[in-house]
Amino acid sequence: MHPPIYLRPWWNLGCAAICAMSLGACATSGAPGAGPQSGPVVKYEMDPIRIDASKGPGGMQIDAYDAPELFEQAGVALSDKRFEAAAKLYSKLLKGFPDSAYARPSLYNLGLADIGSKNWAEAIDAFKGLIDRYPTHADAKDALFQLGACYAEQANWPASAEVFARILERTDLSADDRIEALARRGFAQFNLGDLDTAEKTFRAVLTYRKKIENEERLATDFYLAFSQYHLAQISHQRFQAVELRLPEAQMDKDLDQKASLLLQAQRSYIETIKYGNPAWASAAGFQVGSLYEELYDAFMRAPVPPELRGEARQVYQEELHKKIRVLLEKSMRWQRENLLMIERLGVNTDWAEKSKLAYAKLLKLLEPKLPGAPGDVPEPAAAPQKSPAAVPPPTPSAPPHRGEAPDRTRPVDSDAAGRQVL
Fold this sequence. Notes:
By secondary structure, the chain is mostly helical. It has 14 helices and 5 strands. It has a 3-stranded antiparallel beta sheet with strand order 1-4-5. A two-stranded antiparallel sheet has the order 2-3. The N terminus and C terminus are likely disordered.
């Protein structure tokens, strides 16, 4: 392999043919071929060209390219979702032209290409490289958001929380930026199991929104609904943690606490639905139905008074089921209403499938049985049914639609190219 050859030519008059082949534009003043008497010599600056020469089966092979050409080829590949090809081209540009005006947008777009391929570690390196090299540039802010999201994809919650805390120290945040950073920081704290701190952070989102609602209009309600949903999830987890215990006086206290947390979680889920965001509304509707089914399971798992044995124990279970059957009926109604809401919204989410499965199961449990038929009393769950994990915000790998997460995925334009890649 021969060493690369860098060309940084300054061309005199008479270079029209060479300029025509280059990607850069050539401005002229004066007539070609004019002598010294026509005025000062006009020089033309072109983008540097790199020529790599290597020996191959067919002999010497020459590869000549410049930064604009690579940038455009990489942009086409990224637009076509050929992420690996785009990453190779951006990496080639950065290696061959590290000081080019195309380096900054190439770093950002390289991160996007790696996200598209779910190469989270490589994406992290690209965004960190941009942040380190261009800390004061506006693109560094979006790169920080991408960085924190990539750490979340790796479930590196401490690093994700730290990045969003760092973002919140910036002075160039819009209202949407601040709300997203707070919500994502709260999400990291939530996944670290620090529910008290996460609750404070999510409430800070809603407090800030109320503070600026008459001053600045938000581009999306996504992270407001996201924060409200996770406040409900926090109450939901606390609800799940309460077990019903004997003696009877203790069970009464446990039941009061569990019922209070159920109502608290339900109110928060309903507030989530009111935002009208399809992703979080459908998730919240499913979770309300789950709350009542989980309360039913908690009753059926509760310890039976030890004095009840044999037939008396069976009678106790049957009578208990008759009294708490209404919980399953409420759960089924919520799942049915959630399916109707999803249909009205015209969206297709994972929560639609979850609601369909839950509704079908409850319908089977509640269908009339012949007297004495087996299964007359639904079996309780063997263990507490933890609500499905909170859905993380859409990752930057796919451009979200209006009403979903803010779009930070479009490749930034290049100061050199003067246009966006996409």
